[in-house]
Amino acid sequence: TLPKVIMETPEIIQNExxxxxxxxxxxxxxxxxxxxxxxxILTLQIIFTSSMLTDIVNRYAAxxxxxxxxxxxxxxxxxRRFPNISLRIDDVSxxxxxxxxxxxxxxxxxxxxxxxxxxxxxxxxIAFERFSASVNLMALMSGKINxxxxxxxxPRVYAHxxxxxxxxxxxxxxxxxxxx
Length: 180
Description:
Mean pLDDT: 76
Distance between the termini: 87 Å
Shape: elongated
Structural class: alpha+beta
Number of helices: 3
Helix content: 25-40%
């Protein structure tokens, strides 16, 4: 029986270091993944400056709105609603030239409401004090937009329907697919 005990002892000793090695490798891999994730978030927080975000909003606004989009500060924060990305835009207004729909406007049954949001040079379609939203980071990395939280502060919407085909929100350019 003595030789049998001697042969089993080296196997037990040999298996213990393997178990510790596997756990250390798993822990090391997890720490690397967490470290890369933290560095990524910190880098994105540094890269997304207010001026860069302002340029992005201006570029897309010009592409999709046939009017003027004015806004104050734009801010992205990676930590406010972690693990979601928080976006905030202050003092937003979307306007269009005051004479753009003059040929369609007549007080008629809409009365005084038709002239709400109008001005000398520009009419307002929409304005709000602050828009804030948080977007799920993991969904965004996979190409999906999953909005976890959204708030619109002091919205003012001056939407007018003139007839079945004409509306003052026709200033938005939507992508259309042409069937051939």
